[in-house]
User: What shape does this take?
Amino acid sequence: MDKEFILGKSKLQWIQEYPVLKDIMDIREVLWINPKRKNFHEAMKNISISELDVKDAEQRLKRFAPFIAKVFPETEITKGIIESALFKINNMKANMESYYDGELLGNLLLKCDSHLPISGSIKARGGIYEVLKHAEDLALKEGILKETDDYSIIDSDIFREFFSKYSVAVGSTGNLGLSIGIISAKLGFKVTVHMSADAKQWKKDLLRSKGVTVVEYKSDYSKAVEEGRKLSEKDSNSYFIDDENSVDLFLGYAVAALRLKNQLEEMKVLVDENHPLFVYLPCGVGGGPGGVAFGLKLIFKDNVHCFFAEPTHSPCMLVGMATEQHNKVSVQDFGIDNLTIADGLAVGRASGFIGKVMEELLSGVYTVEDNELYKLLTTLVDTENIYLEPSALAGMVGISKLFKTVEGRTYMENSNLKNKMNNSTHIVWATGGSMVPKDEMMKYYGIGKDILSQENVQ
Ligand SMILES: *Cc1c(COP(=O)(O)O)cnc(C)c1O
Assistant: This one.
């Protein structure tokens, strides 16, 4: 709710202390540069998660690969490893240069988590990983599985019967529910997904068709999580996947970085002191972008610059970071409505866990208007023939924010990057899209087309 006092201070006081809040509350696009960012080694002193934890998660996914390949035939070509493509989008880049009227230096690449197998979004990383880890823990404890086994044995009635005694629950704006619902049902778990009001009907229908229990809420994501957590706690055989606090989810996302490193090497894209890497990640509660960004920092350290992207109507991570209050404040506290077409990002209160981990590692956060997301969606189809969901386009404007705003240019200057930008690489993390039904997608496309043609008339 819109409050007169937020943690004891009036909005005016908040603005005086943190001037960026004025534009945020006026629902204007901003680029906020993180004043607390430190060099990698300094920042890591305050973080207890390490590269070993990420490697452990990577190993676990390798153990499960034979099972994944068996039950999800679309992963056979990658031998059960759930990974997405990375490629250059030169046509899109040229289009944006003319649209934003200015040169955008460096390579522009798209990381297509939108086309990840099984659930078509970045949630196929963290969500699936955490369910697999939980299944492995249970099966090891029961003595029906050893780490050295070929995990394809999990695709059997013995295991399905065993897992059917347990349930998995999760709160979601849609995509996390989709990914956890699909993998849990495949293993044999009973699974309940608590869906916020933003969740699209087709996602609920799809889950129900797979035997998943879907509980619908009229309120936003935070409420769906809270209720799901409460209900799950009442049942000792129920495991709640906590998108706001889960380290496992985070580690599942972070594995992406180890694989991206290989992809960049294969493409002969250099990342070092003279070849900076910029990554733009759409952010909801923070787990997905936080995990990926953390993994990237472990590998590329000070040579990677990570920015989160949020809708102007749901800037929860930005509000949390800029006020230094993380999950103690919500966008609603500041009178912002949390209503956006970017359903994957429609979160009013960020994860405090992620806020803390990223506090000294993140380069900044920027916001994007919904209309911009529609336009970019349509433009990407027209230039590259790639269909993404609106949330996933939030990353696309990152490069123009960097080159076209005072804050962006100041960041490059202060970080000693100005003369290295010709050698820079920019990765837009495309977080979802391939599972959106065609008619739904064509509606988005049409809206973007309309907005663009109206602009041309003016
Ligand atoms: C969930 C999601 C995100 C953001 O991930 P969080 O962990 O919520 O920050 C971004 N894009 C899409 C399409 C998503 O579904």
